[in-house]
Amino acid sequence: MLEVHDLTARRGHATLFSGVSFQLAAGQALALTGPNGSGKTTLLRILAGLTSPAAGTVRWRGKDVAPFAPCIRQDTLLSAHVPALKDELSAAENLSLQCALTGHRVADYDIRVALDAIGLGTAQRLPAAVLSQGQRRRIGLARLLLVRRPLWLLDEPTTALDVAGMAQLGRLLGDHLESGGVVVATTHQALDIPADRLKSLALA
Amino acid sequence: MSASGQARGENGNIKREGTPSATRAPAAPDAPVYGAWAAVRYATLRDLKLALRSRAELGVQLLFYVLVVSLFPLASSPDRVLLATMAPGILWVAALLAALLSLPRLFASDFNDGSLEQFAMSPYPLPALVSGKMLAHWLTTGLPMAVLAPLLALQYGLDSSLVIVLTLSLLIGTPILSLVGGIGAGLTLGARGGGSLLALLVLPLFVPVLIFGAGAADAVRAGLSASANFSLLGAGLLISLVGAPVAAAAAVRIALD
Amino acid sequence: MNFFQLSSPATFYPLAGRLAPLFAGAAALLCVAGLWIAFALAPTDFQQGEVYRIIFIHVPAAWMSMFIYLVMAFWSILALTFNTRLSAMMAQALVPTGAVMTFIALWTGALWGRPTWGTYWAWDARMTSELILLFLYFGVIALRNAIDDPRRADRACALLTIVGVVNIPIIYFSVIWWNTLHQGASVSLTSAPKMAAIMLTGMLVMALAAWFYTIAIALFRVQAIILERERGAAWIASLPGNGSRMVTA
Fold first, then answer.
1. N or C: chain C end with fewer CB closer than 10 Å?
2. What is the ipTM of this complex?
3. Domain for residue B17, yes or no?
4. CA dihedral C188, C190, C191, C192 (to 10 degrees)
5. What predicted TM-score, i.e. pTM, was given to this entire model?
6. Is residue B236 part of a domain?
């Protein structure tokens, strides 16, 4: 489903990485590893269509991914390093807005259920400003739960998650892959994904 | 289509049940049409909700406008005729300054917390989302300023016919400020210099609006018709409505690169 | 030569180096000719006396100030559409000259205004429009300086230039619109009595001189920009006179 061929990225005069190629079929996940500054996030953003590579091609479902192409925007969930939360709104309101932005109007009941499931039961109505880092990260997990998209691009999904959160993430990833989705995740830690579905790419 | 025999909602969402961790099939490729009007509505309502949560900020902006307008009679001579002549220009400049004050915030907060990136990743057209934000900006800055104008014009002893013309010019002109200013806000995202840079970029584009806007009341005072001014303002508004969201969306994409 | 081959800075650099002195020389010759027409050949004006001769600098500068902006917009459209570095560099090279031309137009306009209108500055359509144009140029310069990443700066400045181009027709037509709004506007150039052919020739020669000067200086400047932005590329090290002295990335 996802084919990357000979990808090269530059920042300024420095080349971040070059000649990166990989293929992911439905139900497969790619773990991007590498030291800080090796371009993991840049690669993820190229896959998301936010930035264009210096060279190389990305094909999603057989179509070339141009920057901001509709095909990638309709099929992708990007979980960036900064959780896109507005401090003035509550977790429930934030989640509702995030889901609506992807085109899915989610009922309030489902929002509540999802937030309960990720362990944010009582803090749902509080302004997001008072939530901890871990809680903010977990709202992202709730979004993964509620919105159906084939391609998940996750930037450091394990950050600030406690044991329960990691278990939840593992379950989410497993379900998604089992139903034929694709995951690309940058990570410093090992992801809880069965080995037969997991590929690894280290950016030196 | 549904796995595990469980009921699925219209767009593949979870149906009411206990633990939402069952297996689901991914959404079919026949995706719904992501309309522009829905996007505008979404962005406008979102920004209005956010603005109402920070009511203090809105109040400060309007207060600034009122203060600037009220300072001029204090600073210059209390000559009634002179004040009445200056009134349209002063109200217009104050509206401009207040707009410049509030424009950096149009995209900055969303840019910093990652929301703008999610906007760009949304299947909704980005120009539509951006125009929704600009509409919310006008509703919280330009519109109140235009509505307050008749009240403030009292301080200047402006003729009632002139007050009507002035208010109308503000009603048509302030949306242009929000639209064109939004382009500047997008261009200065992540650039050094913040608000001053934004002002420098956007003032050359504002000046024609200022000239024709303030000139409308002046024309009527001179006994001429203001129709030329209003036609030009209207044309400017139409061009901005079409072009500014596209340009601002392009600027946002450049900033996200 | 294939046009798209030219879009590589490495190919364009030597070409610019060959063309620039030619244009500079032509500009110098035309300038001498133009000034000679201006001060020696053209007769004394009936109404304004000798002071009108500033027209031979003022008008070409004003024309160039608008023309350069249009050329910048052209390069900007290319830069955004094809994502080429060189188009953006050409636009970048033109900005300072455009600002200088605008400044000269404003300054000479003020100097001309004093003896003829009695004031250095009048808020009439043309002068105000030229001032707006100057601020447009300043804006592009300021934006470029404010963004660190050169490619992002390229695209942002290109977008700003294109958006600003909307102002050019406003500037151009504002004279007409202003005259309908404010009856009795100040004396405008187009309403002047039919110009003697020699004056027109002089202005055209000076305009051509300004045009060639702009091309020459833009080519010189784009060479400097290429060197600065492409430093570290192999072909720069192999340029004559460089090598060990060049700073590599």
1. N
2. 0.91
3. no
4. 90
5. 0.87
6. yes
